[in-house]
Design goal:
CATH superfamily of the largest domain: MFS general substrate transporter like domains
CATH class of the largest domain: Mainly Alpha
Keywords: Cell membrane, Membrane, Symport, Transmembrane, Transmembrane helix, Transport
Number of strands: 0
Helix content: over 70%
Radius of gyration: 29 Å
Pfam families: MFS_1
Mean pLDDT: 78
Distance between the termini: 80 Å
Catalytic activity: 3-methyl-2-oxobutanoate(out) + H(+)(out) = 3-methyl-2-oxobutanoate(in) + H(+)(in); 4-methyl-2-oxopentanoate(out) + H(+)(out) = 4-methyl-2-oxopentanoate(in) + H(+)(in)
Order of helices and strands: HHHHHHHHHHHHHHHHH
Organism: Stegastes partitus
Largest sheet: none
Strand content: under 5%
Subcellular location: Basolateral cell membrane
């Protein structure tokens, strides 16, 4: 039983790629570049909240209007997944990440001249969100091409960019705000985000060795009209591929998607309201702000550590169950948070929050790679991210509405914790069912194959028996002819 599960849940083979991933070498430089681009992608929407109070006073906007800046940025980042994946397939990760870095730099630079909240929605939310989407998907895809055996570790190191950059950008933005105001801070932040272009330059494309038997002779140069028609057809074909609903016929993908959507719905609201909850409990403002720093610091070490654990021979075949445990662990922390009254226990909650958050995000894309394989991962991650933009938008406002309605933050944590725990339990139970069904289907195919082979052997044995009987009849006839006297 365990042997069959290990075979079913083992990593996807590399034969579909046509080459063996390097699992090292220049791949670690690629991981470093992905660490930078993913770090900016996940930390920027959170770190921008430091500027919101000053922007609100300068532009005369309400709190809800200001909150939409990060919401739009995150939603566009997730919704741009299919387009980003299609561009990566067409042009490769290096030019896509460089383009994304340029868009991020331009978005922050132009936003520094904004005079209305709608202008910031367009510059930061839409342009910046598109740039972050290009950075995120291209970085994840290039890692899947460089790593196979060490892929969980590589993903953990790359995803660690989120807490590292959050811990770095938060104090830097606070310092810049005090020295240059929000406009000058956005201008400097735009220059900092151009480092994503440097990260993209590190993402050298993988060039598999050309075998003599597989190398085709050079083709004739096509006419421009035919070439343009071919490009258009390829574009339409790729667009249909990344929006293909055939993924929903895959049982494992549907299970992963439902659990992932439930997690995303409750994942970000506790981060947004943690400081406010601590202040509401009588904690001093700066001490309340340190809770996020503690969470990010713990998260920084948990992500690569989780990658090491997930890469072990005991966990790797059962990584989907490890992902379920991480979700249940984090959801349980949120459920227990309202019972905490002292700052010391809030620090403990922040530590466990960082552990759970780091484990989930170190595994969230690795589990999708494990289910879909390297070949189908770019399409699958594009579809997943565009669906995730819905709970990303609805989760924090829904949690905030509970605070407005009841005047207490505990219902926010109860809601988020319940949704996440339910999602984790759903993943665990349904993955048990899925792998048993896969094992059952595999045994059925083996029986059919064996039965077909046995029938072919029986037919062959019957044919041999008929041939032997024919030979015996012929020999007997010869004997009878030999014994019959010849009449003269």
């Amino acid at each position: 039983m365990f042997y069959s599960l290990n075979r079913i849940m083992s990593p996807a083979p590399a034969d579909a790629l046509g080459y063996k991933p390097l699992d090292g070498g220049w791949g670690w430089m690629v991981v470093f570049g992905a660490h930078i681009s993913i770090g900016f992608a996940y930390s920027t929407p959170k770190a921008l909240s430091i500027f919101f109070k000053d922007i609100q006073e300068d532009l005369g906007a309400s709190s809800s209007e200001i909150a939409w800046i990060s919401s739009i940025m995150l939603a566009v980042m997730y919704a741009g997944g299919p387009v980003s994946s299609m561009l990566v397939t067409r042009f490769g990760s290096r030019p896509v990440v460089i383009t994304g870095g340029l868009m991020c730099g331009v978005s922050m630079t132009t936003a520094s001249f904004g005079s209305s909240i709608v202008y910031l929605y367009f510059c930061i939310g839409i342009i910046g969100g598109c740039g972050l989407s290009l950075n995120l998907n291209a970085s994840l895809t290039i890692i899947s091409k460089y790593f196979l055996a060490k892929r969980p570790l590589a993903n953990g190191l790359a995803m660690a960019g989120s807490p590292v950059f959050l811990c770095f950008l938060a104090p830097v933005n606070q310092y810049l705000l005090g020295q240059f105001g929000w406009r000058g801070s956005l201008l400097i932040l735009g220059g900092m985000m151009l480092n994503c272009c440097v990260a993209g330059a590190l993402m050298r494309p993988v060039t598999p060795l050309c075998r003599p038997s597989s190398c085709a002779p050079p083709k004739k140069v096509e006419q421009p009209d035919k070439q343009n028609t071919k490009i258009k057809r390829s574009f339409v074909k790729n667009l249909k591929t990344f929006l293909d609903i055939s993924f929903f016929k895959d049982r494992g993908f549907v299970i992963y998607l439902i659990g992932n959507v439930m997690f995303i719905f409750g994942a970000y609201a506790p981060i947004v309201f943690l400081s406010a909850y601590a202040i509401n409990q009588g904690v001093e403002k700066y001490s309340a702000a340190y809770l996020l720093s503690i969470m990010g610091f713990v998260d920084m070490f948990v992500r690569p550590g989780t990658g090491l654990i997930a890469n072990s021979k005991w966990i790797r075949p059962r990584i989907q169950y490890f992902f379920s445990f991480a979700m249940v662990f984090q959801g349980t922390c949120h459920l227990l948070c309202p019972l905490i009254k002292s700052y010391a226990f809030l620090v403990v909650y922040a530590v466990f929050f960082g552990i759970g958050f780091g484990m989930v995000f170190a595994l969230i894309f690795e589990c999708l790679m494990d289910l879909m394989g390297n070949e189908r991962f770019p399409s699958a991650v594009g579809l997943v991210t565009i669906i995730e933009c819905v709970p990303m938008l609805l989760g924090p406002p829904a949690a905030g509405s509970l605070v407005d309605k009841f005047g207490d933050y505990k219902y926010l944590f109860f809601m988020c914790g319940s949704v996440i725990v339910t999602g984790g339990l759903f993943l665990f139970v349904m993955n048990v069912y899925n792998y048993r069904m896969l094992a059952k289907e595999k045994r059925a195919k083996n029986r059919e194959r064996n039965q077909s082979t046995a029938e072919n052997q029986d037919q062959g044995n019957v044919s041999e028996a008929e041939m032997e009987q024919t030979e015996m009849n012929g020999a007997q006839q010869d004997v009878e002819n030999a014994e019959t006297p010849i009449e003269m």
